[in-house]
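Protocol step 4 of 6: structure prediction from sequence.
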Amino acid sequence: MQHSHRLLDALRDRRLAAHLASARPAWLWSADGRTLLWANAAGAAALSAGDMAAGTIYVPPQAVVGQIARLNATLKFDAPPRLARLRGFGTGFGRPLLCACSRLSIVDREAILIAAAEPAGPVLPFLERVRRVLPADETPAAAFAPNGALVHANTAAAARLGHAQTLAALGVEREAQSALASGEVACTIAGRPAQLAGIGAADPGKLRRT
């Protein structure tokens, strides 16, 4: 699956969007643990999984596969997250990482969402975390701060935005507020259809520093 498609899936699911720019790692695994379906920038860095925005395919070690499979067998579907200590998730030297684990359905498939409850892996600055989750392909994608200022745009989006550096300059402030409240709103930017989605860690409706 192209990264741009994975990003859209993440943005459209509030359970994933809440972790998109977080400093703490988050991973979405297939139910059998053999496929990393999605990770935020911190999660990819913690596993040395390369640049997910470039479509890198990560092959997990068997120890990780086994832990995910066991979680799938014991977690209740769509129940509140359960805390578990997992090994091999970027802490090094076999130290377990405390994680919130959920079994859920996304894009018509069952999956396991693991969100670290404590720091793990290399520390990534906020701007770098945002850059890494935006697709590097031809799909235009840009991120804006809660105050409407442009945080980062990939090459395709930068060409479309031109000199505009704020949501106000693009004339979509009202639509952006609606996206923060509802999750996703259709709009028009530079004469072309676009989607605005609210993301964030502490508040699922906002992209913010964490």
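Step 5 (inspection) to follow. The chain has two domains: 3-116, 126-197.
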